[in-house]
Design goal:
single chain, alpha/beta, Rossmann fold, five-stranded parallel β-sheet, 27% helix, 11% strand, globular, disordered N terminus
């Protein structure tokens, strides 16, 4: 009898107001607008002490794309200079700006035995805190080699190793990995050490 009585009762209607969803795009926009109103240009120099940056890409022709993108952000095209303007055994005399280098150039060695990697690290300096922008970062996909697959083990690529050595040599640098190519194997992301996905204290 009690069960039948309960079935005939109706629960009072309550109106639930949905919680407002966070609009991430609007939040970022508001933050940028606030910086602009204070006179800051966050895309120009996010770190005030950094007057040098490195832009690494897949081919020499992409330097024009880099200059175009940099100009869109308010920079000057002349800010970006190719590393191969100097020979490997020469010191880079660029005081401030963005040094453009390809992955193939990064792994090369000059006639005197000095590598482009060493030349670049010397220009940056041990206390370098600027940006290392790895454009087309999947070009370093085989940085750790592979033991999977039916063809047996594959050795690490030279440009992948060069990219890793650059990151290790400049531990205070700000890393930017850019790639539109997906990784079919997690090992292909071994070059992106600063993501904190693996390694002591990370995994």
């Amino acid at each position: 009898m009690y069960r039948t009585t309960r079935n005939t009762q109706t629960r009072p209607r309550t109106t639930r107001r949905p919680k407002p969803k966070l609009d991430a795009a609007q939040a970022i926009t508001d933050e940028i607008v606030a910086l602009l109103e204070k006179g800051d240009l966050p895309w120009r120099r996010p770190w005030r002490t950094a007057t040098r940056a490195v832009w690494i890409s897949k081919s020499k022709t992409l330097i024009e794309d880099a200059r175009r993108d940099w100009s869109d952000l308010g920079g000057a095209p002349t800010d970006i200079v190719a590393l191969d303007r100097w020979k490997p055994d020469e010191d880079v005399t660029l005081g401030r700006g963005i040094l453009f280098v390809t992955y193939a150039t990064l792994r090369s060695v000059g006639k005197t035995g000095r590598s482009r990697l060493e030349q670049l690290i010397d220009w940056c300096g041990a206390d370098y805190e600027g940006v290392l922008a790895f454009d087309e970062a999947h070009a370093m996909a085989n940085a750790a080699g592979s033991t999977d697959g039916g063809r047996g083990a594959t050795a690490p690529s030279q440009q992948g190793i060069a990219g890793l050595r650059l990151q290790i040599a400049l531990p205070r640098a700000r890393m930017l990995y850019v790639s539109a190519t997906g990784a079919t194997n997690v090992g292909n992301l071994a070059y992106a050490t600063r993501l904190g996905l693996w390694g002591p204290g990370d995994a």
